[in-house]
Amino acid sequence: MPAKEKIRAMFDSIAGDYDRLNHIMSLSVDKGWRRRAIRQVVDSDGALQVLDVACGTGDFAIQTARALRQGHVTGVDLSEGMLAVMKEKVDRKGLSDRISIQKGDGESLPFEEGTFDRVTIAFGIRNFENREQGLREMRRVLRPGGRLVVLELSRPQNALIRWFYDLYFLHILPRIGGSVSGDKAAYRYLPASVVGFPGKEAFMAEMAASGFSQLRHKAFTFGLCRMYTGEKR
Q1: Is 158 helix (H, G, I), strand (E, B) or coil?
Q2: Sequence-distant (≥ 6) Cβ neighbours of residue 227 within 8 angstroms
Q3: Structure pTM?
Q4: CA 29 to CA 27: how far, in whole Å?
Q5: Domain locations along the chain
Q6: Whole-angstrom Cα distance, residue 75 to residue 56?
Q7: Average pLDDT, the chain
Q8: Is the pLDDT of residue 25 over 80?
Q9: CATH code for the part of the protein at 19-154+198-232
Q10: Predicted confidence (pLDDT) per residue in 126-168, tens digit
């Protein structure tokens, strides 16, 4: 895993093209994955305080804010470039009163213990330098009974689907991403980070070791994406 500052600089460099390329990477099915994950976040009519870690350009935070009956979403990310894109989108959509944006490190969150009812992280946990430290921080800022919802890309288990996945994701996508963004290294790193992410059993074991209980897992679209949920006792 590259050092944290390299990750931050990489995302700064591709921030302007990230949304467009993200939809190319996922063939636009990422929007449906987010909707399904948000059902695990917004499952109450009450006011919910939600923290979106590694919020990037804000797609997940924006969809969450729109789904909330009451409450507020706080987005935190290391990359100023990604947050600048998020701020422009939040302002344009008239959601600045429902979404706060803050620069911060997911492995050392700038919030007090027990601040949030829900913590989310969509397509960002694989970029952590110390994943278990990040998970412990997410648990720390949750209130007792609060829930963590993790959405992450994954490599399919079916051999035939995995063959096509590897062809597209490891060979075709880096060329497309590098050509569009001008940063070939970033679009070699992003697919490699998915391949290097632990399998579902190993990641759920990390969640358990970080203090989460009531662990659940759901695979989407032949295992191209996985959702993990856990609660703070």
Answers
A1: coil
A2: 33, 36, 37, 40, 149, 150, 151, 217, 218, 220
A3: 0.92
A4: 6
A5: 19-154+198-232
A6: 8
A7: 91
A8: no
A9: 3.40.50.150
A10: 999 999 999 999 999 999 999 999 999 998 888 898 888 888 8
